[in-house]
Amino acid sequence: MTNNQYISALKKALSGMDRSSRNDIVQEIESHAAESGTSLLERFGSPETLAKQYLEGEIVAKPVGKKLLGVGKHLLTWIGLAVVALIVIAAVFFWSMSGDDFNYADENASELKSQDTHWVTKPWGDESLTIKLDQASSVFYWHSDKTVRWSCLGESQPAINAEGVMNMRHVKCLVYLPKSALKVEADQSQVVLVRPQASMDIQLEQASLRIAENGHQYRYEIDAKRSKVGALQSHVDAALSLNIQSHESMIEQYKAH
């Protein structure tokens, strides 16, 4: 008996069943034939015996559409687990990389005033500044001086080029910024903002952003994709706005370790 003959005999044996259920069963058996290429008679036995099992409820027909939906749900579940795993891995990386040496939110910390620390100072006016971080860790503060001031540990010292871009790679820095327009692009990096005093545009890619508001209010505009966002209170009438775009990143309030 060919597979086509088997299907015809199965349809006849299921003639007492409603059309919708019968069609579902036939589609399911046909899909087995298409996938395996084997004889349906050898795989399922006689069409009459198989039909009897369906009619008596020993086998429950599963529509092809529902089977595909089930596969889709499983796929989405695995994708979700993969995203969570990426976020967890990133969080562990950021934590091990940062390991807060002190309470960064304390703007009067002795570490920031230490004369033993090497600081680099660059004059800076009201022009905008772009800071790009690549596998780096940086804490940003603001001051009233028309300068950018930083102290870093790492393979190489940051530099500001003629286009107003400060590149930070494989370093751990404390940075003081003037109250001018700022853009931050962080890739696999950790960023801490301590009481921002200028509006900012921030782009995060597998990065961590922690914000120490220190009693100040901000207007948050966040576009988060596959990211974890903590409890940040946005105030529509705040003078300063933080526009954040993130992908597979973490955004939260700063809490000292």
Jot down its keywords.
alpha/beta; 2 domains; eight-stranded mixed sheet; 6 helices; 15 strands; rod-shaped
Mean pLDDT: 84
If you compute it from the alpha carbons, what radius of gyration comes out, rounded to the nearest whole angstrom?
A: 31 Å
The total count of helices amounts to 6
Q: Which of globular, elongated, flat, extended, rod-shaped describes the shape?
A: rod-shaped
Biggest sheet, spatial arrangement of strands: 1-4-7-3-9-11-15-13
Distance between the termini: 73 Å
The share of residues in extended strands comes to: 25-35%
**Helical content class:** 25-40%
According to DSSP, the number of beta strands is 15
Query: What structural class should be given to the helix and strand makeup?
Result: alpha/beta
Total discrete domains = 2
Low-confidence stretches: 64-68
H/E series:
HHHHHHEEEEEEEEEEEEEEE
Major pleated sheet: 8 strands, mixed
